[in-house]
Design a protein that fits this description.
single chain; 870 residues; mainly beta; 9-stranded mixed β-sheet; 6-stranded antiparallel β-sheet
Length: 870
Amino acid sequence: MVNNAFRRMPVSNVSIQNTVASDVASNTVVLSQIAAVQLAQPAPASVVSETQVAQIDRSILADAVVARQPEAIASIGSSLYMRPEQIRWINPDLGRAIADIRTPTEGTPRNQITVPLSLTADVSDETVFESPTNSAQKYYLPRYRIAERNRQVQMVLTQTQTGWNLAVYLEKFPAPSLQIAARDYQELAHELSVVLQHRLTPGDANGGQKELAFSAPVLDSGMVRVDLPITTSTELGLLFQVLTLPEYGAVLTVRRAVKVGIPVYVNNSTGTVPNSSAANTGASFTIPMPQLRVVRIENYEAGGQPWTRYCLSVDNYAAFPADLFAASPDLPPCGLNRNASRTWVNIHAEGGATLYGFCALGSPSNLKDLWFARPRGQQPPASVYITLVDRRNNITYASNSVNPAAIAPAPPDTPPAGEALFREVTRVLESGVEPRPFVFPQAIYPYIYQGITGSPNQTFTLQRWTVPWDGTPQSYYQDPVRREIVYFLPDCFKLMRQPKSPYHPMMSMRFAAVNDDPATLRATFDYWAFPHVERARLLAAAPILREKFRISGQLEFQPLLVEKPRLFLKLPKANATPQLQEFTHVSVELRSGFSDSLSLSFEEAQALYEAMFSHTTQIFEGFVQVDIQGHAPERINFIPKVDDLVGEVFDYTKIVDSANKTVAFTLRNSIESPLRIESLSCVFQEGYSQVEGVMSGFSRALPAELKPGETISFTVTPQNPGADINLSNVLFNLNGVKVIPDRDALFNVILRPDCPSTFKKKLTVDVRRVVFGDRITDISLVFKRGSTLKLSYDDFAPGVDKLTATTTLLSPIKSLFLKEEDLGTYEFQRIVLLKDGRKIQDPPDYWQTENENPFSLTNSDLPTLPAEVR
């Protein structure tokens, strides 16, 4: 993989990120040369030259891992894939989505952050940033547009000594919502890159796409200039058509990278969210659950009618950023109020019915003064909760449920729940420059082309070739301009591991229920699927394609880019056979994959989880379909199996003994599941040559199984001691290392840390007076997972034969999900207190099991009593 080698040139507070294709960092060992792949600048990418593929073949193939000492061991790879941290440069939307799969819960106090702060986790160019040490100092991130001077767009195509050059002049401007306020703000430091994207086949959205990266920006006449050099007349002919014909769908894209601090809120609540829609949002836990409380009940008159007002307060109001309540004239109005706040607050009855709402709150402190009213004498709902609806981000935050008739005391003098910490992140924001498509007909804009006419009659289309691999024809597409460029499709998509140790799966699970009702318990599963490419396939195809192309030089492989790949998955359905369905809302990118958030019933989530451990079921499997005009649809399978994820599994330490030409290694299992090492081998890499390594002194005999955290040590020496090699450049063959998936451990690491680990459910218990007789005063039920419920004879109302009480039971989500216990089952011990003071109770190791709710306690449910009491 190509390293992030960037050339930076300051332009005010703008700098460029421009990948240098030939630069190979030493800490990526030989893999940078192996997969020196450029997708599209400024992103490090996936372009592989034929020689680079061949240099590492030697039939030593395994999952690709980049050496990042001391974290990840370097290996010889069969798979070509992009580093996860590179995704944000070429697919910012996907980069943000995968960043939210496992939202960190650890942060740094504000005064220790060194970059401007965003008070919301969703960073945009409409965000108002502020200094971490001076909240009065504000910043904004500018947008860019093509500059105009004297009614002429500032863009020019000129001939140079080496070919041609397209110069585009850009100017900055604030987002419309900040147009006035930005006059008092400072510009946020950012890095700028510009890319021209266009179709390879005019009129065909899936006929392949090309990305052309502009050079580093420079200041020129008060504007920001970026240049696109063109070296051949054929490339010039294509560019001319791209800029003059709308069929190419050209888009000029500006990417701005910023480093900012975003909030990390600790959710101290262990209750369930009483609104499943809130739990189905990818960022619903970034801001804490509102802690709702009834503060007072008051009577009043309005319109000549008597009313009762139930007053509510959010105790942790200070944890909510002020931006949530900013006036937002750009959003739909609230009646005649065109300056309604960004976030609306609604009060709901149990079941979801809306009782009242507030659309003009101007500050988080207004959350202390919420209320709803009922005609005096009319009973209020049994419970109510509130939702905060962030209309800009389409996110709903739901509170706990409260009994409106029960005034609750103020919480102790403690800081508001959800105290904000921050973490520093890099975010890349992408926007297209008008016009769209980016087209300037020569008849209207002759000054742009400086007399250059291109080749209007020349046609450019992708040409498809097939080469068999493992008995199956594989498609390759030849670039219409640079004939040595070959576009390929992934072999399949797989689930991904985290890029940093510990290398847990890039997926997460969270749960929520409406008002603690087990029947409404739902799960949200987030995941990232990544393209997997077999390097050996490209190696085998290269000589065949070279002959077909009649090209004697090397070929350059690049992933095929298309606008509209289609995703089909077979998801579990309650009480129905899973059916293949298209997921039109999921954006698929053939370089970086796709990410989605699935809302599932509890049973559906269980079926999906089990399917990831099985190679016989088709649940959760599917494919990405690419429809290229004039060709049969291409299908790329999605194989979501937890024993075959893309990513690293080992951390390592090494000690190099140059005098004796030995390297001592210790490998540590850094994933959640055991690893079985059937075999290990390695080579020393020096430039383009390799020397076999001899491994000895294993601390464990092979085959060996390593539990998470366990290690294996050994020594490596070159087979040819006289070879002039760098002892630090050791590449391992991990083909003999297998993952043994651990269901319990995997669930532990994918359960979101901000999701409660237990599920609360209410249990109703009733007992009749006859059970107490004239000898029993109290019956206590001590629940294994819950509190003690005490039923007393004195609690019976006069003339009433039945006593009813409720309690809350806690059930571990994990035990329920992995079917270690039934959702409705509960266990308890019984304690009976007699009038003479004797206590009869169950033995310490005995637990009575029941599953009825409500549960009617009878004499047969009591422990064995003395004969005179029965």
